[in-house]
């Protein structure tokens, strides 16, 4: 059985529960035992509840066996994610920009609304790989705005749409993912917002782990990291992995990682598709000593 089939099976099992059935049986049969005042019927109802407990225990064992099958089946895909990742590093900017997961218009509108909740000129912001999306237009309100990618080739087509004056204000950085310190060039304790859309979908889990750890140090207390990733807790995401389009990233592992680093999970959303939108906050109060901003409104050319 393919990994996507196993995950789909788990997704369907997770939707099911005996709780409602057991509650309904207890409520209706308790009416009968109360009305009849029959000890025999009371004993039989107790036996029915015991059978429910046995059923639930067996169901839990089925789920545990399935989980173990998934652990075995997913191991090769962690390694294969590096094959996809290494292939991307040798691709052109145009090819990479076109590696986009289809997102509904209403979802994009919701994403923009969520993003704008954290945009403020009081704090610096960082967007990793702006790509062909328009989220960078929503982030010009942060001051200053940093943009980062693995090569200047990925940044120039995006930033060129702004005026020369604003381009000089943008902080452009190239990150080195082969380094032990990917974000070394960026200042610590500086950012109120870090945003990475459609980027970690194409990064192996260990690379994502390094990013999340380093970004935590770059955020100010109270700062937020917003990211999307290919959430392989769902079969639709695993199918993309099996077609060598995205990396294998189990959502439960990423969430556990975020919490272990110190993040608080502020918000999580998906529409049953492959992509999950996740907002992670560094504990603390977000403060600023800025008293005002003199810039005019920033518009694309």
Strands, helices and their partners?
Blueprint (H helix, E strand, L loop, with lengths): L2 H12 L4 H18 L2 H51 L3 H5 L7 H12 L7 E5 L6 H4 L6 E5 L6 H4 L4 H6 L1 E4 L16 E6 L8 H14 E12 L4 H8 L8 H11 L2 E6 L5 E7 L20
Parallel strand pairs: 1-2, 1-4, 2-3, 4-5
Antiparallel strand pairs: 5-7, 6-7
Describe this structure in words.
The structure is a single chain. The chain is of the alpha/beta class and 301 residues long. It has two domains: 3-78; 97-281, Vaccinia Virus protein VP39 (Rossmann fold). It has eleven helices and seven strands. The chain has helices at residues 3-14, 19-36, 39-89, 93-97, 105-116, 135-138, 156-159, 164-169, 205-218, 235-242, 251-261, and strands at 124-128, 145-149, 171-174, 191-196, 219-230, 264-269, 275-281. It has a seven-stranded mixed sheet with strand order 3-2-1-4-5-7-6. Strand 4, helix 9 and strand 5 (219-230) form a beta-alpha-beta unit. Helix 1 packs antiparallel against helix 10 (235-242), helix 2 (19-36) packs antiparallel against helix 3 (39-89) and helix 9 (205-218) runs parallel beside helix 11. The longest helix has 51 residues, at 39-89. It is elongated. The protein starts with a helix and ends in a 20-residue tail after the last strand. The model has no long low-confidence stretch (mean pLDDT 91).
